[in-house]
Design a protein that fits this description.
Blueprint lengths: L6 H8 L28 H4 L3 H6 L4 H21 L4 H23 L1 H14 L8 H7 L3 H18 L7 H21 L2 H11 L39 E7 L4 H4 L2 H10 L5 E7 L9 H11 L5 E3 L4 H5 L7 E5 L5 E6 L9 H13 L2
């Protein structure tokens, strides 16, 4: 989720005075079209954060019901991230509609309106591309064309960006940083004032961290290593380090020492390490060989043997290995594909830092 705003717009919103309901009249919030690819779909990420949940003023029982609804949404949302962009956006748009219905049922129209305001804030300058916002601001043809050209220039830099293309990545970062100020320069002062009113009370979405879904519950398997099984719901209250691997995968093997170290050192602090072995080769489809390999490697943590790849699909994985950090309440807080120390990376240390932070939440 790109629930991030520029420093310039953040300062702009934080300088805003409290906005009355009367000031907000004129903007009729509408669902974001999945075809409007230039505008990020942020609603699902936003509603997972405690800050936004607090803004919606859920009571304790309502929050439990809301999280139950989120869990149903998340089992579709999380694996959808690997779909082509056009399909992914259609899935997310349908889930956003479901989400808005849940919020309206639990907290009423005022909560839905507040959620829409926060959504607009999170979309930064791209928000002017939304038809209802464009209509509300009364953008003329020249303004609309200039704004679309501005955003298209930035998006062009991001197309087919390769991980090793440092120069282009720097150009993209620079373009993204300056984009909001360029967009504001296209707007008239009275339009900026109207946009300020549409945003409502500022909420610093740059600091929202819990933007990923509730982790999918494990799909039962008849085969585990160490004669031990686990359920994520039974591990709530602990930070969970869950990793998908295949024992004949070279990149997976490179991570094994980290998993064992985490199990040996972090388990004393309330961390649970859990493996899921999803086969890539015929040997990895043999439970006996999987168990033997885990024993040889010295795995003392439980490993679910995912013979039919059901868990792999439920989590929307595309690469061996993949590591997830899950907080005490069951939310995914970080994930990483590939070797933790690939080409000098120190992702193992980053994971450990995140774990320490989550243990203190």
């Amino acid at each position: 989720m790109r629930a991030r705003i520029s420093v310039m717009l953040l300062i702009f919103w934080l300088c805003c005075a409290t906005v009355s309901k009367a000031d907000q009249a004129g903007l009729e919030y509408a669902a974001l079209s999945p075809d409007l690819i230039a505008v990020p779909q942020n609603l699902l990420g936003l509603v997972h954060t405690p800050e936004v949940q607090s803004e919606l003023k859920f009571e304790s029982v309502q929050l439990q019901e809301f999280e139950s609804g989120l869990r149903e949404i998340d089992v579709v949302w999380w694996p959808a991230r690997i779909q082509p962009v056009d399909q992914q956006r259609k899935i997310v748009a349908a889930l956003e509609a479901n989400l808005v219905e849940i919020v309206g049922r639990l907290r009423g129209k005022s909560a839905v309106d507040r959620l829409r305001q926060i959504e607009l804030q999170s979309q930064s300058s791209r928000v002017v591309l939304r038809p209802e916002v464009s209509k509300y601001l009364r953008l003329d043809g020249s303004q609309s064309m200039k704004l679309k050209e501005l955003f298209a220039e930035t998006d062009e830099l991001g197309k087919e960006l390769k991980p090793d293309d440092t120069k282009r990545a720097q150009q993209l970062a620079a373009a993204q940083k300056i984009e909001p100020s360029k967009a504001l320069a296209i707007l008239l002062p009275q339009q900026i004032e109207k946009l300020r009113r549409a945003f409502g009370e500022p909420l610093d979405t740059t600091k929202l961290e819990r933007i990923y879904p509730l982790a999918p519950e494990l799909i039962a398997s008849a085969h585990w290593t160490n004669d031990r099984s686990a359920e994520l719901k039974a591990l709530q209250g602990k930070v969970v380090l869950l990793h998908f691997y295949a024992f004949q995968c070279h990149n997976c093997v490179a991570n094994f020492e980290h998993y064992k170290r985490w199990d040996q050192t972090l388990s004393k602090k309330g961390v649970a390490v859990l493996g899921i072995q999803t086969p890539e080769t015929s040997a990895e489809s043999d439970p006996v060989k999987v168990i033997a390999a885990a024993s040889k490697e010295g795995f003392e943590f439980p490993v679910l043997i995912d013979l039919e790849s059901k868990n792999w699909k439920a989590w929307g994985n595309t690469m061996w290995p993949t590591v997830y950090v899950i907080d005490k309440k069951g939310y995914i807080r970080f994930w990483w594909q590939g070797e933790l120390n690939w080409q000098g990376a120190t992702v193992d240390k980053k994971v450990e830092g995140i774990v320490e932070k989550l243990l203190n939440e």
